[in-house]
Amino acid sequence: MKNGTDSFVFLGHWPSAGSFGFNTDILATNLINLSVVLGVLIFFGKGVCAGCLDNRKQRILNTIRNSEELRGKAIEQLEKARTRLKKVEMEADEFRVNGYSEIEREKMNLINSTYKTLEQLENYKNETISFEQQKAINQVRQRVFQQALQGALGTLNSCLNNELHLRTINANIGMFGAMNEITD
């Protein structure tokens, strides 16, 4: 006997005693057994399956209800977020516009102050140039005057002798005395 089916086949060869006997047709016996098992399962398992299905239906309905509530809350939060986003975007646009105008205003202030600074620097430069020119002219005059004075003193010293020197002093004293008499 190799397996359980061989035993049924072996029993099928027994002589049948009256109306009782073994059905050796495996397909027919399996269908009968399956129909009996299915009938028992349907009769007794109907309540169990219906209870399981009802529980499953309630869980699905609760899940759907919870999902709908969560969806509603999510939609509310989304609308609030959109409202806040619009408000923030409007504020950002306002800041951007104000920022641009502020930047332009600061730019113009900077340009104006730069022009004023450049004008002041130009004035200082011109004053410095004028001062340096006047200083150079005065230095040249002083050198010319010193050279002329040295030349005149050299000429006077070479031309004047003691007698001429005394006559010049006496003439100056006489003129000074005459001026004194006129003013008294």
TrEMBL record:
<keyword id="KW-0138">CF(0)</keyword>
<dbReference type="GO" id="GO:0009535">
    <property type="term" value="C:chloroplast thylakoid membrane"/>
</dbReference>
<dbReference type="Pfam" id="PF00430">
    <property type="entry name" value="ATP-synt_B"/>
</dbReference>
<keyword id="KW-0472">Membrane</keyword>
<keyword id="KW-0812">Transmembrane</keyword>
<keyword id="KW-0934">Plastid</keyword>
<feature type="coiled-coil region">
    <location>
        <begin position="64"/>
        <end position="98"/>
    </location>
</feature>
<dbReference type="InterPro" id="IPR002146">
    <property type="entry name" value="ATP_synth_b/b'su_bac/chlpt"/>
</dbReference>
<keyword id="KW-0375">Hydrogen ion transport</keyword>
<comment type="similarity">
    <text>Belongs to the ATPase B chain family.</text>
</comment>
<dbReference type="GO" id="GO:0046933">
    <property type="term" value="F:proton-transporting ATP synthase activity, rotational mechanism"/>
</dbReference>
<comment type="subunit">
    <text>F-type ATPases have 2 components, F(1) - the catalytic core - and F(0) - the membrane proton channel. F(1) has five subunits: alpha(3), beta(3), gamma(1), delta(1), epsilon(1). F(0) has four main subunits: a(1), b(1), b'(1) and c(10-14). The alpha and beta chains form an alternating ring which encloses part of the gamma chain. F(1) is attached to F(0) by a central stalk formed by the gamma and epsilon chains, while a peripheral stalk is formed by the delta, b and b' chains.</text>
</comment>
<protein>
    <recommendedName>
        <fullName>ATP synthase subunit b, chloroplastic</fullName>
    </recommendedName>
</protein>
<feature type="transmembrane region" description="Helical">
    <location>
        <begin position="31"/>
        <end position="53"/>
    </location>
</feature>
<dbReference type="GO" id="GO:0045259">
    <property type="term" value="C:proton-transporting ATP synthase complex"/>
</dbReference>
<comment type="function">
    <text>Component of the F(0) channel, it forms part of the peripheral stalk, linking F(1) to F(0).</text>
</comment>
<keyword id="KW-0793">Thylakoid</keyword>
<keyword id="KW-0066">ATP synthesis</keyword>
<keyword id="KW-0150">Chloroplast</keyword>
<keyword id="KW-1133">Transmembrane helix</keyword>
<keyword id="KW-0406">Ion transport</keyword>
<keyword id="KW-0813">Transport</keyword>
<comment type="function">
    <text>F(1)F(0) ATP synthase produces ATP from ADP in the presence of a proton or sodium gradient. F-type ATPases consist of two structural domains, F(1) containing the extramembraneous catalytic core and F(0) containing the membrane proton channel, linked together by a central stalk and a peripheral stalk. During catalysis, ATP synthesis in the catalytic domain of F(1) is coupled via a rotary mechanism of the central stalk subunits to proton translocation.</text>
</comment>
<keyword id="KW-0175">Coiled coil</keyword>
